[in-house]
Amino acid sequence: MTINEISKRIHENAINHGWWETDRKFAEIAALIHTEISEAVEADRIKAPLVYYKNGKPEGVAVELVDCVIRIFDYLEHEGVDIEEVIAQKHAYNLTREYKHGKAY
After folding, report:
1. How would you label 34-48 residue by residue, b for 16+ Cβ within 10 Å and e otherwise?
2. Which end of the chain has fewer surrounding CB within 10 Å, N or C?
């Protein structure tokens, strides 16, 4: 399955579960992504495994990061973005960048 096919399924699931009954602003989506990052940081802080199960629900840093990807894919699919093409273009550009983008850190 391609990234674009996965994003289509993710978005269809979000629609079927009522997440797009009203228009969602980008700021709301960004805040939800930030929430998932915060949950990943918290999982790391408590030294949780990358993936574990609590009452059958996947948890952990990797799971929270995947939640970020799911939210990002959902939004980009809603906006009609060809995610694979954008990834390919950005990666091609990154290949031309200097080591650490020319910074000393």
Report:
1. eebeebbeebeeeeb
2. C
